[in-house]
Amino acid sequence: MRSMPAELIKRYEAEGWWTRETIGDLLASGLVAAPDVEFRVHSDVRPWEGTFGDVERVARRLAAGLRARGVGPGDVVAFQLPNWMEAAAVFWASAFLGAVVVPIVHFYGRKEVGYILDAVAPRVFVTAARFGRMEHQADLCAEVPVVGVVGRDFDDLLADDPLTGVLATDPAGPALIAFTSGTTRDPKGVVHSHQTLGFETRQLAGLYPPDRGRQLTSAPVGHFIGMVNAFLIPVRDGSPVHLADTWDPGRALELMGRDGLTVGGGAAYYMTSLLDHPDFTPRHLAHMKYAGLGGAAVPAAVTTRLAELGITVFRSYGSTEHPSITGSRHTAPERKRLHTDGDVLPGAEIRLAEDGEILSRGPDLCLGYTDPALTERAFDEEGWYRTGDIGVIDEDGYLTITDRKADIIIRGGENIGALEVEEALLALSAVAEAAVVAAPDARLGEHAAAFVRLKPGHLAPTLDEMRAHLDLVGLARQKWPEELSVLEEFPRTASGKVQKLVLRRDIAVHES
């Protein structure tokens, strides 16, 4: 794990940002206080309706069943599930046991899931038999001691008598490993402690308006923010949980009108897809009072459009590694909320390197990566995290992201590693060199755009031919480039590296 100055630890403890409370403690106290709060899953496949108390009983029976199978503090429990009740049960059960939970995005494919399971060597893996393109593949978890498949044998893991209390574990120790696509071909395992995750839960909850309403959560719970919004903040606040296992704008609008649910932001795509849907009417705006945007690029055209409809927009900036770095409150001046990524949040610190890269640190900054080499590259001895993003800070201390050093495209909140896509493109017989960058997207924030240089005497592939190839090699569909350009030569640095900054700027000029 990363090195951290002793005085920084003392400050976090003295300020109350780091406590002795574990995630299991946080959940247990919240569930005792609000056992009758509503918990619903809106799904065509596996709908469910009950209360926090009902889910807690399943979670505690699961915890007892896993405890009987030798699972306890520090053991790794992984799950790959859609936004279903069982995902909450696995997460809460892991916390009660003091185990390290590993949520996996439900649409990750065989390659990603296999890599993650190999990297964390879980004692337990819970998944679904089938959901959409996802299908349980038994050979991937053949070495996992305890496997449960929802819809098949998950209930066999439940003990008759629920676990009582919370097993003791070190609050400074790992509580969560969240995997996110990186600049290389493999996902990055980001390790959070009980202290960093607990602080982030309180920090993010503090950004939300008190009158935000009954939220619909469609962001996958395998994502860090989806997980926090679905399984931690509502328990802390005693607010209802409404999950959707797919994002269907028409269904969301129906739930707004029928059940009074609200959609309060996330990636910009969630808001724009509602506005652009044929079933949208001005009546729905009453359930879209706020739009807290982050997790992907936020085009000014989107924030302006939302504001003109009377929606209060506020933006934030962070990552899986450091979830809440800056953010605008919903009460901040409109020009700041619409056109910057906010000012520094309590406990967080930022500074800009000579090249404009944003360096950050704070009580919710992760412990490091499962890969020590990544940890060594990303953190310095004083506890600063190299974000890979370029930004500017205005006279009022508000940060604006202007570019990204890291090779990541954030499409609708999902990270896409450019290198993985480039390597797949290089398997095309006509392609000599490939570069993939982020392009602005009015709905999704960003999408992948591919630039290729051809081998002599070869014809350029069409966009459809490129997509057919990527489908054949098994690249997940959300990673497919949505633009394809052919260049005779790439812009390069003096050392010969492709200047992706120039490619991104060219796209931006073309889009404007």
Could you describe the 3D structure shown?
The longest helix has 17 residues. This protein is an alpha/beta fold. The protein starts with 5 loop residues before the first helix and ends with a helix. It is built from 16 helices and 27 strands. Among the domains are: 212 residues, Rossmann fold; 104 residues, ANL, C-terminal domain (GMP Synthetase, Chain A, domain 3, 2-Layer Sandwich), CATH 3.30.300.30. Helix content is 31%, strand content 25%. Strands 13-14-15-16-17 form a five-stranded mixed sheet.
CATH domain fold name of the domain at 18-210 and 218-236: Rossmann fold
How far the N terminus sits from the C terminus, by CA atoms, comes to 43 Å
Let me know the number of strands: 27
CATH superfamily of the domain at 18-210 and 218-236: ANL, N-terminal domain
Q: Can you name the CATH architecture of the domain at 18-210 and 218-236?
A: 3-Layer(aba) Sandwich
The largest β sheet comes out as: 5 strands, mixed
Level of helix content? 25-40%
With strands numbered from the N-terminus, the spatial order across the biggest sheet is 13-14-15-16-17
